[in-house]
Write a structure and sequence with these properties.
The chain is an alpha+beta fold. The chain folds into 2 domains: about 1-200 and about 480-555, FAD/NAD(P)-binding domain, CATH 3.50.50; about 280-400, no CATH class. Helices cover about 30% and strands about 15% of the residues. The chain has helices spanning about 1-15, 35-45, 80-95, 105, 125-140, 185-190, 205, 220-230, 300-310, 315, 360-385, 390-395, 430-435, 510-515, 515-535, 545-555; strands spanning about 20-30, 50-55, 145, 155-160, 160-165, 175-180, 195, 240-245, 245-250, 280, 285, 325-330, 335-340, 400, 425, 445-450, 450-455, 460, 465-470, 475, 480-485, 500. The two termini are about 45 Å apart.
Amino acid sequence: MKYILCFAVLLLSVQPTSGQSESYDIVIYGGTSSGIAAAIQSSRMGKSVLLIEPSHRIGGLTTGGLGQTDIGNKQAIGGISREFYENIKRYYDDPSNWNWQKRSDYLDDGQTRTRENENSMWTFEPSAALSVYTDMIGKEKITLAYNERLNRKSGVQKTAGRIRSITMESGKVFIGDIFIDATYEGDLMATAGVSYTIGRESNNQYGETLNGVQANIKNTSLSGIVSRNGFNHNFLPGVDPYVRKGDPTSGLLPNVVDKPGLEGDGDKKIQAYCFRMCLTDVPENRVPFKKPDGYREIDYELLFRNYEARTGPIRDMYSYGNSLLPWINSPMPNRKTDTNNKFGFSTDYMGRNYEYPEASYEEREKIVIDHQNYQMGLMWTLANHPKIPKEVRDEASRWGTTKDEFERPDGWQQQLYIREARRMLSDYVMTQNNCEGLHIPNDPIGLAAYGMDSHHVQRYIDANGFVQNEGNVEAHGFKPYPISYKSLVPKKEECTNLIVPVCLSATHIAFGSIRMEPVFMVLGQSAATAASLAIDTNSTVQDVPYLQLAAALLKDGQRIK
């Protein structure tokens, strides 16, 4: 399998650490796309660097199924992030990497996000991303440690506001001058005692309009859904939320709440997670969808009812790309997909991730398995269940997971799409006003360019007694905007040698724009540049000379304004 080959090359070129105590200039926890960019930049700036990945696979979502790069504006992407996408193009320029499709057939179909004569490529298979990252790391002096999880109870030793060392569950101790938390969860940040938040702020807290509860559907008319909350991500009018239709005494169907909260108020709920599935319609490479153990038909009753609600003119409108499937199959090379959520009932597993950010490793694993079983059950239902329209079953049955991407024989990846978890609270909080260009920081270290994009947070009963989803926000139309360096560093009194490029200081709605993989790579590189300068100038991360930082970023191809 392509994945196994890439993994073997990585193990041969970058050996895991050994021994009980090791020291480095820069220690990076989290082998996400951001962590990889940070490690590469640290090496290029002549620093000894350790990259710690808690699992057996580097790359996070970029190698875990999210091949449909959320760009916003390609010109905002520079440095190592741009280099990665240029290397993706070089990978696919090699004819030997086209196994199930001709290169010309893919690039000419108009859906690839890559334009003619462009030197970068923006869609890719998970295995391609892993291969490119492997090659990029192999050219640097990077020590890579796999399967090392931070001891989140007592694994951070601090002296006078500085992290001196971190201890893994295995007992290994890693000493560093500067630490970078590049995890999606912010585990190092939290264990180090840095302030953070989880969930949605109220609109009043930072003078925003798109934060907090967004239960803004005032009626169940088709026009109301389209204009207020995104027709392609909500239920059709008239879908009953009760176990027995019309009978509140029978109880609510799974994952439906009675009341969503007051409009614009904050809560501790987070946008839904899912797996960005890599599917294929090539019979020789396809693993058919299987019913998971513990499958419960009632978990998909709302799906059945949503299809039943397709009557009259709604029937013709309730489609996307000429498909009635409740998913978006974005084409990747070799007749594969990056498959994402669509319609009112889809791959997003609403309400089942609220505990994830603070959960123990064991509890998180249960949440991941729960999401996996839900999504497996969804795919099997769409392909096989008699309550699903035949035209939908026929189309769903053409697809399956891939044999040649992930190590599991059923073709499923392990990386859950952690769209949002903890977010740091620093001296500068990125908000909706930054996204819209109303507030501009004086210390930019990278650009974000995607719209403010939050998936739904919860499923509730509306004023008419029907089920709807709440939390979806898709606000686009603004220019690329700068991200403040101060939003990547903790308050000085909390920690002076930690930088946080993923779980940075931002409100829920601003993070919904920043949280894109190309931007995480940009921020990882900028974090490593700042870390190197902090070492060179013997300063705290808060006191890194900004003019020197900006000059170094521009020299290395970053785009900061």
